[in-house]
Amino acid sequence: MSDLKNIEIEVGAPTSSDGTSVSGVSSNGVTTKTNLMGLDREAMEAYFASIGEKSFRASQVMKWIHQLGVSDFTQMTNLSKTLRANLTEDAHISVPEIISDNLSEDGTRKWLLQVPGKSAIEMVFIPEESRGTLCVSSQVGCTLNCSFCATGKQGYNRDLTTAEIIGQVWIAKHLLAEQYQTDKRIVSNVVMMGMGEPLMNFNHVVSAMRIMQDDFCFGLSKRRITLSTAGVVPKIDELKQACPVSLAVSLHAPNDDLRNVLVPLNRKYNIQMLLDACNRYVADSQRARITFEYVMLEGVNDELEHAHQLAALMKTVPGKVNLIPFNPFDGIEYKRSSNSRINRFRDILHHKGVIVTVRKTRGDDIDAACGQLAGDVMDKTRRAEKFRQSLVEKIQ
Ligand code: SAH
Q1: Helices 233-242 and 271-281, packing angle to 10 deg
Q2: Measured between alpha carbons, how far is 207 from 15 in angstroms, rounded to an integer?
Q3: Residue 10: partners with Cβ closer than 8 Å, 6 or more residues away
Q4: Where are the beta strands (DSSP E) in 202-260?
Q5: Series of mean pLDDT values for 10-residue runs along the chain (396 residues)
Q6: CB 326 within 8 A of CB 297
Q7: pLDDT tens figures, 263-301
Q8: For position 379, what pLDDT does the model report?
């Protein structure tokens, strides 16, 4: 695209064992120092206790890191000189390296970030009139292999650390402040809808979401954080206890036969089990609603009967439906439903009393739309190779 702004940033700093870049490392390029970027309040207080310091140090340091964007202990002027020197010795504050930074014509901005394991992940910022949404990755690749998702086709390498997850928010906050030249909050919402299945990396994702909510860090309310899942049922119950943020569920099909094909996880946790978990999730909240994502695939899940089946399901759970026009990528045979089919589907749901919206496609000129986030995954499964092989066979 002609008016795309491409900013390339050099990569090359050594990395720490928890997956972030750091200076002052041992000869093999790996440090055993603690990365304070990845510590939520409980972990930060435990860290300061372990070095003989009082717990209020946790608030001070979290504020320096996340609110003020300071990653150099010597600049933390309300800590004693001795403590600053000790922290420099014992800890570091590091985030993933930026490999590329692209701005779409519609203002969507996508970053490719390098993480150890010869891989890269993607994150996307979507500006709108009334809010700015950051879409964050939780894994390098994904294990679930949904049949229409680019991330799934890349295979899976590993889970991201807490530092790598919250580091995405940290990077975006500070780069967007430069771009928009304001101290006002630009990232008003975070969605865990980037690469990976967040509930398959539960502990790190929960810690990162706690840091997002902490008043000394990003101060986002739980309603402004949305976790999207393909339906890892037992973890939905755990999430309610650990960190009850807004929930989005990738439904994509209104019956088990079809969902088994599109979202293979359905063979383990079927639609009824999933909807039961959703009802438990919102059981004691009058206002809470679950968002059900439904990708529109021409001739696959966009027929009249599918709309009627979906409307019937929606009578059993407090939720709304978000129709996502399918975003195609190389080598995939699915096609996006036409606008008229999407509108017809929407109207049926609407007439049946279901709250329904159609997601506006953003950032597709820079491959930043839903399901196009592929990063660069050093696959540890054989899946990416099999997908490549099937493409070769098709061409021959
Ligand atoms: N694993 C989580 C998080 C991914 S969120 C989940 O499944 O919810 C990304 C959303 O985009 C999901 O709803 C996903 O199903 C959807 N998606 C994936 N590939 C897509 C594509 N090619 N076009 C449109 N939406 C897609």
Answers
A1: 10
A2: 21
A3: none
A4: 225-229, 246-250
A5: 29 40 46 92 98 97 97 97 97 96 94 92 94 97 94 91 98 94 90 97 98 98 97 98 97 98 98 98 89 98 98 97 94 96 98 96 75 71 74 62
A6: yes
A7: 999 999 999 999 999 999 999 887 789 999 999 999 999
A8: 77
Order of all β-strands in the sheet with 225-229:
5-8, 97-103, 109-115, 119-127, 132-135, 189-192, 225-229, 246-250, 290-296, 319-325, 355-358
* Residue of 122, 164, 197, 293 with catalytic role: 122
CA distance 141 to 139: 6
What is the pairing mode between strands 91-92 and 34-35?
parallel
What is the distance in A from the centroid of ligand 1 to the CA of 30?
34
Domains of the chain by start residue, with CATH: 4-92 (1.10.150.530), 97-395 (3.20.20.70)
Centre of ligand 1 from the C-alpha of residue 288, in Å: 22
Question: Mutate which of 134, 148, 192 to test ligand 1's pocket (most atoms within 8 Å of Cβ)?
Answer: 148
- Whose Cα sits closest to atom 17 in ligand 1? 371
Provide, for the chain, the percentages of residues in helix, strand and coil under a 3-state DSSP scheme, each rounded to the nearest 5: 40, 20, 40
CA of 250 to the centre of ligand 1 (A): 7
Counting every residue written for the chain, the total comes to: 396
As a whole number of angstroms, the distance between CA 307 and CA 301 comes to 8
- Would you call 370 a catalytic residue per the annotation? yes
Residues touching ligand 1 (Cβ under 6 Å) are 146, 148-150, 193, 197, 228-230, 250, 293, 295, 324, 326-327, 370-371
Distance CA 392, CA 331 (A): 10
